[in-house]
Specification:
Elements: E1 5-11, H1 15-18, H2 20-32, E2 36-42, H3 55-61, E3 68-72, H4 76-84, E4 88-91, H5 100-107, E5 112-115, E6 130-132, H6 138-149, H7 152-166, H8 171-182
Parallel strand pairs: 1-2, 1-4, 2-3, 4-5, 5-6
Helix pairs in contact: 2-6, 5-7
Length: 183
């Protein structure tokens, strides 16, 4: 990889709710600042109504059409491969019941930037991930990504701690905890 090449990944289906527009705009700002960033968007767009945004046009408008790849729905192994080749997972979600993709990224040891809801509640800020205070704020997303780009040591520490956290939330452990509630 080039010295400053960074690969970011997001897994989403409701692109608007998951913050894909804000992330695309953030990638555009970072590109203007001289960073070479690729964004992999995993998942098929299922936006409806007033939030039905033309994402290809959004990429062109932000000069990142060559930097953003929409993979659509992918097989599990390809998703894991894309996650394992990512430097940062970003999920600026506006609402999340839980957010399994965040936990999947953490389990792959990827430093994670996400909102403080859903699986984001598993994150202790700057220990095993980074919290976004406002997922609508493109400048905050840029700031948090830039913090991780400029500090490889922090990226590595957050990734290692994210994996440790994710291992506490296996399906087996979740089933055991659920059974205890029933009991």
């Amino acid at each position: 990889r080039k010295k400053y090449e960074i690969r970011i990944v997001i897994i989403a289906t409701e692109f608007w709710r998951k913050g894909v527009p804000e992330l695309i705009k953030a990638i555009g700002i970072l590109k203007q600042r001289g960073y070479y960033i690729n964004l992999d968007v995993i998942g098929a767009k299922r936006d409806e109504g007033e939030y039905n945004i033309n994402y290809n046009t959004l990429c062109w408008d932000n000069y990142v059409q060559a930097n953003v790849k929409f993979h659509g729905e992918v097989e599990f192994q390809k998703m894991v491969s894309l996650l394992q080749n990512a430097d940062i997972f970003v999920m600026p979600t506006k609402y999340e019941a839980f957010g399994i993709p965040t936990l999947e990224a953490m389990s792959c040891g990827i430093p994670t930037i996400t909102s403080k809801m859903g699986a984001g509640e598993l994150i202790s800020n700057k220990r095993n991930g980074i919290h976004l205070d406002n997922p609508h704020d493109v400048n905050e997303i840029v700031e948090k990504i830039e913090m991780l780009i400029s500090d490889e040591k922090l990226r590595n520490i957050l990734g290692e701690n994210a994996r440790k956290t994710a291992l506490e939330y296996t399906w087996k452990e979740t089933a055991n905890k659920t059974m205890k509630v029933y009991e």
